[in-house]
């Protein structure tokens, strides 16, 4: 079976799209409330693979933030990744992302730390970003080499990846060697054309639900603030970036415009637009073959950049 980026979606992926459209998009994301989103995230996580075989997980506290470490069993390596989970800034945890994090760790031969950063609305912006920055700084201070460290994240976590990089510039902290973002939400103003053109096509995200989560995270803030919408920031000096997004996502133009903005200031960036893949399909590696292939490509990118 051809599982290339431009290939037709597998039967398994089409079934996943159908489930997302009717069980999540129509029932949760159309008229969301925070408790419902959190229950939905936990429910979807049960369909996604949990910790994969051959990966050890342990809990820790770094800079006052609860975290989980994931690494291939018995691995000794200097490769590290700071992973920022998605969940619309209001849900998600290291537990909900053990599957995708463990598979990246195993594929890249890296130790990955996933912070349980504070969530909105109880802890709105910049709480989550502050937690991510504190963990990153502590990793560097503990001896993790920046040239052996990458940052990665999905959806809202993809936003935090780029916001963190801009924060590192502000604080004159060393940049990591690479960054990975899956379906990143980098424009909170919602000005991307795909917000309209893909509104019906997107099998998971509902455009009517975005104001609720944006309001929970950034109420009263200027949504063009680069730490909220990294697309509008000074991206010069960022490390090489790798972005994946589905062709039918309302966030497609966030990824496309982010690539253009990075290239405009000389940052090395690769964007993969996967045909008909739903939002953060990489989380479903046990269910759809495209997820395994996408993670393999992410792992290959990280392994090459981390030495």
From TrEMBL:
Keywords: Hydrolase. The keyword Transcription does not apply. It holds the Pfam family Abhydrolase_3. SUPFAM superfamilies: alpha/beta-Hydrolases. Residues 81-282 form the Alpha/beta hydrolase fold-3 domain. GO terms for molecular function: triacylglycerol lipase activity. It comes from the Bacteria. The active site is at 155. InterPro entries: AB_hydrolase_3, AB_hydrolase_fold, GDXG_lipolytic_enzyme, Lipase_GDXG_HIS_AS, Lipase_GDXG_put_SER_AS. PANTHER family: AB HYDROLASE SUPERFAMILY PROTEIN C4A8.06C (PTHR48081), ACETYL-HYDROLASE LIPR-RELATED (PTHR48081:SF30). Belongs to the 'GDXG' lipolytic enzyme family. This is Alpha/beta hydrolase.
